Amino acid sequence: MGHVDGHAAITLPWWGALMVIAVASGKGGTGKTTIATNLAFVAAAGSQPVQLVDCDVDEPNCHIFLHPTITETHTEELLRPQVDQAACTLCGSCEITCRFHAIVCMKQQVLLFEHLCHGCGACAMVCPQKAIDEVPQPLGVVELGRAGAVHFAQGRLEVREARSAMLVRAVRRHQMPDGLIILDAPPGTACPVVAAMHGVDRALLVTEPTPFGLNDLKMAVAMLRQMGVPFAVVINQCDVGDARTIDYCKSEGIEVLAQIPSRRDIAEAYAEGRLIVECVPGVRRVFEHLLAALQGVPA
Amino acid sequence: MKIGVSAMGDSCDADVSPQFARCPYFVIVDSETRECEALGNTAQEASHGAGPMAVRELADRSVSVALAGKIGPNAEQALVAAGIEFVQAEGKISDAIEDYLRNAART
Q: Which of these, B53, B56, B46, B51, lies nearest to B74 by C-alpha position?
């Protein structure tokens, strides 16, 4: 699949899922995975099929809480240009064409910067000598399986590989065609996150009420507004930090769907790799409310 | 010989930039005439590949030595391919140039 996919990755197909909800955050470590896994678990108690898609391919960790059985593994590849230096006339067409400055034509040779290359194939297309060949290179794997009623998909990036956005797109090609999809996005607001958020129906931004949490929340809000994705916020560890996050949400007209306190029993369940809806009393109700609100059903 | 300096300003009185590729200016000095030419660095704001872009800029101007505080791995590889020597430098550009030439004459 790698060959075709390397190029097809530019446009995302529409999967026709009933609804795709992405759990994201600007800042890392705010509780995305906790929210996503528990949300998927609670949703799977209903009648519709539910899939948890872990798009945090650099560090997928939803499996720690859901314990899925992996039944399918797909190897994803990326095309890497290979220059036949003997056939190359050092004309520089490849360098001019590459938007990422990944291929540079120097006096004696053409130089490829592998980690800047996006595998688009433009250099090979424009080379008048046909001196550039494209060879597949491992990018990572997409694993599919099941954790009880929850359908499961995750990407795992090859060690040393940095081009996570391409694997995120590959993971999303394995999204179920229907049902409710819950995506655990990578942290931040860079390319892999944009790839994860592309075409989702709504997003849930998880933040913590600290200056760092707020700063990164503002960046995530700006990203989602630009992408036209409707979103709401969950404030995790709402009793630490200060009131600036909630004040910001109020002044921006951003809905805060839930506030989760910093509690020892929640931290313990997390540390043991357990779902908080299963072992912390009263938490399930919060997730049912979240789910209803996100799906637009009155709670 | 031309020396390309990653610079904080557009003259020889400016400081050498601590970064090679993402510096505001390049100051190119002719070691024989001491003539000084400054150009704005288009790679400074590049989201990808600032290193290779900066090396391309210097290579196009036939620079044979590059001076900066620090260099990234991509730029280092590109400099080698372009046959440009990298020398770590800091402080005022005119002083850094004289230091470099003095050391080069000694070896």
A: B51
